[in-house]
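Try this one yourself first.
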């Protein structure tokens, strides 16, 4: 091994990373400088990608957890030819392809967005699961490695416990994680906050542990080789590195291992930028170069990769020729094709909880959709996701022939794993828990929205009607919180999330159809625990009428000469239908509207929206959440009755009475609003 060239390349990365931060006048140089040795060895010697098609689906992945170390990632990718020096100079600037924290872009070698610590390496766990899932079904010709790079902060985030446990339990031997252990945090040294035996912890989770000098390229290479040979466990390489490696003061005195190099340019940290560049063998007047020997190192690796990838593509082509039907199936998976499903044929019992209707759909999906993984955070029998196991079984240690992941009580970990599965490609990811526990999942949901990942969330036990479990388990503000993501546009200009709260079994089926067809954003499906009445059908085909949900909102009940529009979603719609009948008995004509997706409804043209909710007609909204949930569609002229308090422990029918969600109580509120 040519350690001299490898050290030169690592120093090249350090100079570029420090220069990017210096020019931007913001960023995190220290970690990038410390991790450069390992990342250089990984990319110049081990990571397999197609130089001519960086997004090749059967490439190795590299998930960066500490997104603040983006200068390191962009710099090594520049050595690979995926970024230009000019693009590095635009670090953290408006419209640049080198934002402060990486944003997923496989064509540029960026496999995940990262920033909130902990989530990046959990997404790697998800990608590793996806790889094993597909290789199990289609053969080892499609096998590849998943690498993760994690920091002290990521290790400390609670989410790392769930990732460590699940990866070890499953025996994800294709997962190799480098822990950049530099003993420094943003504001303190690591020993000010913990004295954990990290290796022992990971060994307890059934990981192979390797401890090395993370600044030694030979040690890094040997560790990766050892990890690649592991066949039954994931591997963590604990690399002891040096924060701000190579940083010096103006007088040449070392400024390595300091907290103040973590989150600001070297020139503001006490180090001297020009002196540091010189110390690393560069020219501070012209730091923006790739050294000749480094160019040669990466040019040689490019030639090696072309040969490696050619061999792999040859093996895949031979498999495809021998297995044309399976090859066509796999192509469909990778292209995001969904099999034809006759949702109208799915049978439900009358007047069931929408979680039960969801289970009926999941049974069909488990039979029809071969590339779908469903997970639950120890609530599969309550959120009814266990129905997906009608035609499959759970993933277990070393066995990836199933398609259900028991995540345990780890909602955030589960949701982040789903993001990784979706990022890998070729897979459909869904996960379930109680709606109130979406609070635990929120950081991962936001990352799914940012990355435009079509993860499906199954949230049951949707309102205060959870009843006896009490206010800790009764979602009140959660729907409004999730619908905020319907208001935010993603980088493609779409609403960043689709949130659906169906009113009955037929709507639940349609909402699942919408979720499966939504390949652009995450989808939240909000279901009831309690049974709800099937909504009245005017045409005799409730499913066909429920297809109105595909436009966000539609008229459920109508009356000629309607005097008021009653608007809701979920279980409140059936209640509004009862109220409409009571109003009719008093000579007042009402229209009832179901709006399972507020965002979709608002995206319809004005003519359609006005035809459903006439702007000049009195409008009454009813929600089991906070009133603001419906404000955007009701408008300032209308009236919304919702819950303005936390729930209480009691049977849900008692709570309906106490909180004013009975037909008679709502009737009186409607009449009062109308001045009657």
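Now uncover the answer:
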């Amino acid at each position: 091994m040519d350690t001299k060239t490898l050290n030169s390349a690592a120093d090249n990365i350090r100079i570029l990373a420090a220069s990017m931060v210096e020019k931007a006048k913001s960023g995190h140089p220290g970690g990038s400088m410390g991790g450069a040795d390992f990342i250089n060895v990984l990319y110049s010697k081990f990571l397999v990608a197609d130089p001519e098609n960086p997004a090749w689906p059967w490439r190795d992945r590299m998930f960066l957890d500490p997104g603040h170390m983006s200068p390191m990632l962009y710099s090594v990718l520049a050595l690979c030819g995926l970024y230009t020096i000019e693009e590095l100079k635009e670090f953290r600037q408006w419209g640049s392809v080198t934002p402060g924290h990486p944003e997923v872009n496989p064509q540029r070698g960026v496999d995940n967005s990262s920033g909130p610590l902990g989530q990046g390496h959990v997404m790697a766990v998800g990608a590793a699961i996806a790889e094993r899932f597909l290789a199990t079904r289609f053969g080892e010709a499609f096998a590849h490695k998943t690498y993760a790079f994690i920091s002290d902060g990521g290790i400390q985030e609670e989410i790392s416990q769930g990732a460590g446990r699940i990866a070890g339990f499953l025996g994800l031997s294709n997962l190799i994680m480098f822990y950049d252990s530099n003993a420094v945090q943003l504001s303190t040294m690591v020993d000010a906050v913990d004295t954990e035996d990290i290796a022992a912890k990971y060994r307890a989770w059934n990981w192979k542990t390797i401890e090395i000098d993370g600044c030694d390229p030979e040690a890094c290479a040997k560790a990766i080789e050892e990890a690649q040979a592991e066949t039954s466990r994931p591997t963590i390489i604990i690399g002891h590195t040096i924060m701000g490696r190579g940083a010096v003061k103006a007088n040449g005195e070392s400024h390595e291992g300091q907290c103040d190099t973590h989150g600001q340019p070297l020139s503001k940290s006490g180090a001297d930028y020009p002196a540091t560049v010189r110390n690393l063998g560069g020219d501070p007047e012209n730091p923006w170069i790739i050294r000749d020997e480094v160019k040669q190192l990466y040019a040689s690796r490019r030639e090696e990769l072309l040969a490696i990838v050619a061999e792999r593509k040859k093996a895949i082509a031979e498999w495809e020729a021998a297995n044309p039907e399976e090859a066509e199936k796999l192509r469909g998976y990778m292209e995001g094709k969904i099999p034809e499903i006759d949702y109208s044929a799915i049978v439900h019992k009358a007047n069931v909880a929408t979680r039960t209707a969801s289970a009926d759909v999941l049974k069909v999906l488990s039979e029809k959709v071969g590339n779908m993984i469903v997970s639950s955070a120890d609530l599969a029998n309550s959120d009814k996701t266990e129905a997906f196991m009608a035609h499959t079984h759970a993933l277990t240690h070393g066995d990836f022939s199933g398609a259900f992941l028991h995540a345990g009580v780890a909602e955030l970990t589960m949701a982040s794993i789903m993001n990784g599965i979706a990022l890998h490609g070729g897979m459909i990811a869904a996960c379930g828990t109680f709606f109130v526990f979406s609070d635990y999942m929120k950081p991962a949901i936001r990352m799914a929205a940012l990355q435009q990942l079509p993860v499906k969330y199954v949230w049951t036990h949707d309102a205060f009607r959870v009843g006896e479990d009490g206010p800790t388990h009764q979602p009140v503000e959660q729907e409004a919180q999730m619908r905020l993501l319907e208001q935010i546009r993603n980088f493609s200009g779409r609403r960043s999330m689709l949130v659906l709260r169906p009113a009955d079994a037929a709507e639940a089926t349609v909402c699942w159809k919408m979720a499966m067809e939504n390949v652009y954003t995450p989808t939240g499906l909000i279901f009831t625990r309690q049974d709800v009445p099937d909504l009245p059908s005017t045409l005799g085909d409730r499913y066909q009428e429920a297809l109105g949900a595909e436009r966000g909102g539609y008229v459920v009940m109508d009356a000629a000469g309607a005097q008021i529009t009653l608007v809701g979603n979920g279980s409140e719609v059936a209640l509004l239908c009862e109220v409409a009948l009571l109003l009719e008995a008093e000579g007042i004509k009402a229209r009832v509207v179901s709006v399972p997706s507020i965002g979709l409804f608002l995206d319809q043209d004005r003519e359609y929206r006005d035809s459903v909710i006439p702007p000049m007609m009195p409008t009454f909204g009813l929600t089991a959440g906070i009133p603001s949930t419906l404000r955007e569609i009701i408008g300032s002229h209308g009236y919304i009755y919702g819950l303005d308090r936390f729930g209480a422990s009691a049977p849900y029918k008692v709570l309906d009475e106490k909180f004013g969600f009975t037909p008679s109580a709502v009737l009186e509120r409607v009449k009062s609003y109308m001045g009657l």
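Discussion: The chain has three domains: 3-305, 343-526, 549-673. The chain is about 40% helix and 10% strand.
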